[in-house]
Amino acid sequence: MITVFSDALVFDGHSEEVGEPRHVVVEDGQIREVASIPPRIANALEVKCGRRHLMPGLIDAHFHACSPSWDVGACGRLPPSLMACHAGRILSDALDRGFTTVRDAAGADWGLYRALELKLIRGPRLRYPGRALSQTGGHGDLRPKDETALCGCHGYLGLLSRTVDGVDEMRRAVREELRQGAHQIKLFMSGGVLSPTDPFWMPQFSDAEIRVAVEETAARGVYVMAHCHTDDGAARCAALGIRSVEHGTLIERDETARALAAAGTFVVPTLSVGAALNDPGESRMLSEYMAEKNRAMGDRELRAIEVCRRNGVKLGLGTDLFDYASHPRQSGELALRGRVEKPIDVLRSATSVNAELLQLEGKLGLIAAGAHADLLVLDFDPFADLSQFQHPQRIPVVMQGGQFVRNAL
Hints:
Blueprint: E1 2-10, E2 22-27, E3 30-35, E4 45-48, E5 53-56, E6 58-63, H1 72-75, H2 80-96, E7 99-104, H3 110-117, E8 125-127, E9 132-134, E10 161-163, H4 167-179, E11 185-188, H5 207-220, E12 224-228, H6 231-240, E13 244-247, H7 254-263, E14 266-268, H8 271-277, H9 288-297, H10 300-310, H11 333-337, H12 343-357, E15 375-378, E16 397-400, E17 403-407
Parallel strand pairs: 1-4, 1-5, 6-7, 7-8, 9-10, 11-12, 12-13, 13-14
Antiparallel strand pairs: 1-2, 2-3, 5-15, 15-16, 16-17
Helix pairs in contact: 4-5, 6-7
């Protein structure tokens, strides 16, 4: 079946100039042609866009499929079969919002990836890291302070993360996740809000441990993403070969931002999680220690985006949400970014920049011949109002890989 999106105002993932209406031909899951003249194709299915905007599917570069609750420790203890059911629902909901690709940031694995391929569950294209890696007592060590080992064993191993200490353990852990097909490796390089024992400013892992992870991922042609809030931590990421800094909440020095830009290191801000954790109704599960860490962050994340943008850092777009009550905030990330950025920059972050980050440049995040047919038809002008992405009914058509997720035209 050939599908033609006719009379569409096309945002191609790059250019702010949409120009005159065009016609996009989809065949065998890919975009075959973008034409200025209506194509004559017998028996094609026509989607009459009526000068609505047509754009690439959204990409969330910091997503958590295994995230039914803000109690991350409890999530890490769930039976895998139960977590898989939660993940299926969470992924399906994200697809309905127009996110046709997500990069998971802890816990998603080959099983979920394969279930999506086999269409046992519905959801976005998935890039997964397996378990995120943490030093003992780091952000991914979800044991409370009062938990004491009663045997000679040590360390934490949960569904979402595990602890590793030392160069040899790091090498083995990275190789194991890569053996299981991980598209990227996630390291925790600073403290964070949802962990029970580490201050957010705490630097984590030695340089030697990080270099091993970078070396092993490079050997597989993949990369390291690093949870990192602090300015000093972001500078370490640039120096040590990390591909993406996740959050980057406290980046404040132009010097750090210039180092990130020079190294080609991406930064993926995640404003939605901050908005959720500042909502008393949604953050009720935080301990007082976690809530105190969150308050210490303040509103510095917006200033960090401004510092990165003016110094030429490549900015992706992510959300980092947990809990069913908070997941609907996912589409609101674009409007939050619009507080300090131009709409075109936000739209590029959510499409072509994220595609480059995920090593899928030319296949995702753009409308061009040869790209996957992941497409959205919008009932609004995204260059005028980013807040409308929060209303799925304003996205009447969602297509993924040439198949309709929704077609309400």
